[in-house]
Amino acid sequence: MDSHLDWSSEQNVGSNATSLDDSQFVKATPPVEPSKKRTRSASLGSSTPGSYESHHDDATEGPTSEDRGTDSVSPEDNPFMKALEYMWAKRKEAEALKEMRRQERHDKIMDLEMKKLELAERKLHLQQERHDEIMALEKKKLELEERELDLQQWIQDNKVMSMDISSMSGQQQQYYTRRQEEIFARRFGVGSS
Predict the structure, then answer these.
(1) What average pLDDT does the structure give for the chain?
(2) What residues contact residue 7 under an 8 Å CB cut-off, 6+ apart?
(3) Rounded to an integer, what distance in angstroms lies between the CA atom of residue 91 and that of residue 84?
(4) What global pTM score does this model have?
């Protein structure tokens, strides 16, 4: 007994001692001296003092209600069963709440994803419209450039057609006559002979 007291006082006073409040209290067992160590008996039928074997008869399975000193209590009247049912109901309620919150989060995420998809579609639509507008502008620009080239060609052709070739040399007359015939064929679709 003194060794137990010495041990507990050493436990509280030792260099590794910590202060424990009631919520942290842990039941400790005193150290056993090596000479008094408990060992398991090798034989199953015999029981020695200090062994871990049961002192009950093999015929009894476990303590009965008479051993425990309790009468049989109906589950409805048993406060432990009531507490267990209450805890189970609270757990189910908490799980239902958790599932509801999870579903709400899922619905919010789905709504956000749908909005993202709508925005992406709108952006794609706007990009397509912009691309179409750019292509239309490019087409108009090309048409205007083509008209400008046609106009410049028309101006040059008119100069060639209105030239007086009578005062030119023979080669120049042949060149401008050939050009006039080409212009005439291009404008009116009539070939030269």
Answers:
(1) 76
(2) 30, 31
(3) 10
(4) 0.37
